[in-house]
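Before relying on records like the one below, remember that each one covers exactly one chain. Contacts with other chains, cofactors or solvent are not represented anywhere in the record.
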Amino acid sequence: MSFKQFSTDQDVIDFVQTHTAVFNNSPDLTVTEIGDGNINFVYRVDDGNNSLIVKQALPYIRVIGEAWPLSQDRIRIEAKALKQSEAFSPGSVPEVYHYDAASCAIIMADIGHYQNMREALIGRRPLPGVAEELGVLLARNLFYSSDFYLSSSAKKTMVQEFINPDLCQISEEVYFWDPFCDHERNNVNPPLATRAAQWWQDDELKQAVARLKMKFQNQSQVLLHGDLHTGSVFVDPSAENKVKVIDPEFAFVGPAGFDLGVLVANYLLNLAGQARAAGDPAERHAYQQALLTDLNTLWQSLTENFRSLAADHTQDPCLQGEAIVDAWLAELLTDSLGFAGVEMTRRTLGVAHVADVEQIEDEVARAEAQTMCLDIADLLIKHASQFSGMPVITAAVAELSFCR
């Protein structure tokens, strides 16, 4: 069957009514296009009482068009990754009601009553319990997709099922290439031009990034979300499941530290943005401190839960024992810091920035926050192996940021 893009609201309604019973054939359905991403179309279907989400993947990048073709297999990978995450950590993702290969579309639960985490951080909203739950989710995803738990054949099957070359190529370019050279896709704030030029000439930095790229391309350690920034996380501290994670279309089996690194970086991007954002300085400073406390909580939760899972459920006799778990977690931390520095760089010099910093209207003030981002990134990329734990890292970041 040939692919057909949804071109009218009725196309979306017919698709939903055919494949779900959520609306019980109600004639009073509305369709709203809510996608704010660059790649896919996303629709909310609503009857006034119930709602759901439809996501359709086109054979190219939405904002560019047919000039940049893109495999539609990404929607299969997203559906499978969502179901896998639900199996690892029930309640951590929107429920998938239906995946349709012919239409390259997913129907899933609407989590619109949750708040986007990036928006919550920008608004300096307290998020009690969220960092701890993120640590639990990361620990479970890491453990249950790793060699500690999976048999050799199951692991290789997982690697094969999540081969994602088109999306991985995008990541390889926007993370590890563009922001470390004077690339035409880069988006550099004019007052930051001199610092950017220096950045692109730093051989020590580029060698460290090259090693991280090699890990990204060659280490098949765990199933990754692949794009775990705070815009892909939705939160409700009052709910039983405080966190919902969306959009794993970049999922693949890769280096264990990547997802954690991207998430850590987005906490730190917000911290840098708070330094020059609008509002009371004391309030902004207090929120920066809270962000660093949350990073410590995130790491503590992750390590405690991973150790517990490893102690109780490791299948491979060769990987049983505290020493191997300690070594694995130490490598996880080091790699995640390097990847965090890369994410901070690409969100500062690359094509896709974040609202945490971009909301600063004055370009000079924004450049000051962006300079802080690059200072932290430099520390993390070049010196990741020198940090013995997250509290040491957050203390070093505090020295870089709070003194300004």
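The chain has a mean pLDDT of 95.
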